[in-house]
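Morning. Coffee machine broken again, so started the prediction first thing and wrote up yesterday's gels while waiting. Chain of 646 residues, entered below exactly as on the submission form.
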Amino acid sequence: MAAGETTAAEDGATAAPLRLIRDVARISTAGFSGVFKKDCADLARRVSLLAHLLEEIRDSKKIQENGEVVGPTSSSSYLSYISDVTVALQAAKRLVSAANNFDDSKVSSNGATKKVFFQFQCVTWKLEKALTNLPYDDFDISEEVQEQVDLIRAQLRRATERYGGPLNSTLLCRALSQPLDKEINPFHPSNRSLIDCLHVENIGIIDHQAGLKSSPSQGNGSVHHAVDDLEKKESSSNDISAPKDSSDSAGIERLDENKKLDSPIIPDDFLCPISLELMRDPVIVATGQTYERSYIQKWIDCGNTTCPKTQQKLRHLTLTPNYVLRSLISQWCTKHNMEQPTLLTNGRIKTSDGSFRHVSADIISSVGTLVRSLSSRSLDEQRAAVSEIRSLSKRSTENRILLAELGAIPILVNMLTSVDCLIQDNAVTSILNLSIYDNNKGLIMLANAIPSIVQVLRSGSNEAKENSAATLFSLSLADENKIIIGASGAIPELVDLLKNGSSRGKKDAATALFNLCIYHGNKGRAVRAGIITALLKMLTESSSIMVDEALTILSVLATHQEAKAAIVKASTIPVLVDLVRTGLPRNKENACAILLSLCKRDKENLACLSRLGGVIPLTELAKNGTERAKRKANSLLENLRKLQQL
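Came back before lunch.
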């Protein structure tokens, strides 16, 4: 083993590349600016994600303390692999630093911009090749990190292609041999001879800030002349016998550039910071950053507790759907005639945890035909299709995902206003079934379903009203939807169903109202809609089977000042005292909790409780009730004792 190798082994062969990764991360933390801001940020982000790979290689049981490797990979080969990665990372660090400090005044002078973009192409190519050659199985690399590296390699491949088409391998190796192995500033005048020999025919004008700063007059000026000169050098070096006509070549180059400029540039905010791909299901993490759900979920599942982009500690691991961004992405895709990202890929359904489930082509085809039939001019076909979709959406999560991906939700929402009762009933029930899958809740909200659901709740059949109430409950499980539903006029209709609906309708309405009233702003709406009267009736009717539901809703409302006044005004305290005395254990507990909310710091209500003989049942409850009931009863008794001492 050579002396240099011994030193590397003693220090740990991965120490150098890990140090380079940290250096790039520090440069990235300071922020990038200028013409190559996005290119620097993309390259730095990919480099930073390689830290996990190098750490697992460093900690691998197959790497001994003396640097020797246990397994099929020899120690010299191991050091060679790590050396290749280190060289690529050195090049990435130098390029990121140099491009970030690039003089913007040189953007359109002497083809400088194209040369820098070519350097990015060289570095991404070298880094992707170094990662491809690593023997991952020999180092016990975990499946999660392997998947992450595969993703990075795919990004690097796409980046290499994006910077330009296939390059002459001899010239590419020649270009890489110096900038990647020596401390050479690729932008220094002394190195122009190296860069000038590069084949840049396929690089084109990248539509970043550089493209915007170049004027039309410059487009046919010195830059194109420089490119023509380079093409001539390339042709002569490869002994090409049939030279291109200069006018044809310029025309083809301009046509290629126009095609690139015509392609819409995806806004950075629409790309997942991890995958750098257009997001389909954007979610917000605790730091406020947005990621594609499946990628950030994998990041968290790997045991990471920091934000990939900011490296800040995540206070919690909750992923909140970013419905606004999803809507903007959808609108942007429609505007630019781009196919929208989908969970359905190559006959596989992508679930919320990022895993795939196979779906046969026949099923996709038949369900797609069914969804299209929803828009048929034939009423009979519509009835048959929506009835079948109701059945399908009830059976499985896969069906709910597939129906949503094939565009069923917006059409079903439109069918809620159908004059055909059967179609309306089946449409609202289908939406209810689809909403069971959490990701579909956002799609239903984006389709502006709430006004139509409220209309069905107001004037639909009994079954349609019941299922509308159940749908509102399902959608309100997302906190942001509680606000939207509350402001839509749904609460008065739900209170009406609570008063006048069937047994099932009352239960569905009660469940929806309870969930909506968790949001403080909806409590006043419910009180003004007459909910207290309806709840009191449920508590006092001998035939009522919804005492538990009524008490649960009252316990939520009693924390609201307007609701509290309305509860007391409706003479509810005597009813609650009776329930503490004679109710079931759970009812006693809830009645006691409501009394505490009404009487705490309220002498008048405490005096009323005392006059009604509340001390005796509360004392009994404090001895024999549930743990929660004991705490509430003791607190009430303490307040009553303080009142008597005054």
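The chain has 35 helices and six strands. Going to sketch it on the whiteboard this afternoon.
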